[in-house]
Amino acid sequence: MKGNFKKLSSFLDLYGRERPDKLFLLELRRKLSLTFREFDDLVGAACRLFRSLGLKKGDVVSTVVDNNAEFCVLYFASLRYGAVFNPFPYFLIAPEVQRDLETIKPKIVFVQAERKAEFGTLGGRQAVYHLRSGTAGGFLSDLGTWRGEFPEEEAAPGDIACLYHSSAPDAEPRGVLYSHGSISALIPSVARGLKLDGRDNHLIVLPLGHTAALNYSLLPAAFCGASIVLADNFWNIRKDFWNIIQAYRITYTELVPTILFILLHLPGRPAGPAPSLKYAGCGSAPLSIKLQADFESAFKLPVANLYGLTETGPTHYDDPFAPGWKRGSIGKPLDVNRVAILDEQGDELPDGETGEMAVQGDNVFSGYAISGERTGRNFKDGFFLTGDLGARDRAGVFEFRGLKKRLIIRGGINIHPGEIDEVLSGHPHVRQAWTMGVPDDYFGELIKTFIVFREGRIVLESELKDFCKRRLSPIKVPDFIFPVPDLDGVRD
């Protein structure tokens, strides 16, 4: 990697000089458009702001920022400056963020001003910057004070670039450390595998605080010199989704199964997709063959079933135009990594056998920041153990066959049941809790929790949900809470 190593942020400077007037980012909510030159100038200004705030190379920059241009500027500024970018999913509430910050110890936390009252100072030693994202007088305007070039800070491939939010199945936060070298190895491989280039127009509707939108669109667009149309979320544009595809000649968008389901059931379905969009990518949650087939039938648009993890980024590409393609597969591995199917002893299984998928390559993360001692347990002979079950056929095509670990995936968001168990077990009248996912056509899974009350105590379901709402983000609050005498039968 040494001879070809180049920080991804350096491509913005390259395209800012080679194609200065080409659109890089269009934010739909504010109708804000930024060319490569304009965006690169903002990144340089943000670096100069970092310097004025006393940031040093290797300092952690945390963010609680929604899908907007400010998030993108902070991401690339952190890469250029040599800071470690730590984006929190925007839906998290203050207590959840605070728990991680106590261990991460960032130098500064950028919090969207709309959530100033909720987050306050976060009760920590880190500085808190309340970021205003208005059309006038906001953060981007403020950066005008810091205009000027900022040279790319040199980095070794092993230097940490990002610290991504991730929780363990036992509810312990982890924090995934991802290096500059891993980004620089992964993103060109994603571009090669998905056949992305500078002619593409990406539509981002998924949260930027999760790695899918970063790895499939934001970073490949910066690498290839392509354009991005950014929505604050899918729900706000759902009725205009197909019009946006048509108006901006979108060539790639990454969705989740819940979005496919919503599009199928929206009134006013278009007769056919825009000619620019050849297929839709879908990931972050298991995609049923029926939903994949129903969507393709309704919109005459193939769906690529994409697979990856926070620790590895995308690992496969499911090419719906490949000879012999079949629904339900996740395709072949990207050229950046090797994927094996292992048995319980860590030995590789033959084709057709179900085992744990394990990944080896330069795209694999550097380790866990918060639960560092767990890193070694997740590797076997140089392979990262994904915790997911799969199989490979004779043609080298892989299939996802379920979760080895205890996990709920609701609307494309990973939810670890142990986190909910821990919160409910903290209620003074609850002795034990056990959470599981139950199938749902809309969300993929809903959350069902069984609880055992302390002797002589009982609490209404609504009160228990309110207890959770004060401690968990809304998407993690159980849909159903059932009292049971004990958990023996439930856990079985």
Key features?
single chain; 492 residues; alpha/beta; Rossmann fold; GMP Synthetase, Chain A, domain 3; 2 domains; 7-stranded mixed β-sheet; 7-stranded antiparallel β-sheet; 14 helices; 28 strands
Layout of helices and strands, plus pairs?
Layout: H1 10-18, E1 23-27, E2 32-35, H2 36-52, E3 60-64, H3 69-81, E4 84-87, H4 94-104, E5 108-112, H5 116-119, E6 127-131, H6 139-142, E7 160-164, E8 176-179, H7 180-194, E9 201-204, H8 211-224, E10 227-230, H9 241-247, E11 252-255, H10 257-265, E12 280-282, H11 289-299, E13 303-305, E14 308-309, E15 313-314, E16 316-317, E17 329-333, E18 337-342, E19 355-361, E20 367-368, E21 379-380, E22 383-392, E23 398-403, E24 408-410, E25 413-415, H12 417-425, E26 430-440, E27 444-453, H13 461-469, E28 480-483, H14 488-491
Parallel strand pairs: 1-10, 3-4, 3-5, 5-6, 9-10, 9-11, 11-12, 12-13, 27-28
Antiparallel strand pairs: 1-2, 7-8, 8-20, 14-15, 16-17, 17-23, 18-19, 19-22, 21-22, 22-23, 24-25, 26-27
Describe this structure in words.
With 492 residues, the protein is an alpha/beta fold. It folds into two domains: 10-303, 3-Layer(aba) Sandwich (Rossmann fold), CATH 3.40.50.12780; 408-491, ANL, C-terminal domain (GMP Synthetase, Chain A, domain 3, 2-Layer Sandwich). The protein contains 14 helices and 28 strands. The protein has a seven-stranded mixed beta sheet with strand order 2-1-10-9-11-12-13, sandwiched between helices. Strands 16, 17, 18, 19, 21, 22 and 23 form a seven-stranded antiparallel beta sheet that branches. Helix 2 crosses helix 3 (69-81), helix 7 (180-194) packs across helix 8 and helix 10 crosses helix 11 (289-299). The longest helix is centred in the first third of the chain and has 17 residues, at 36-52.
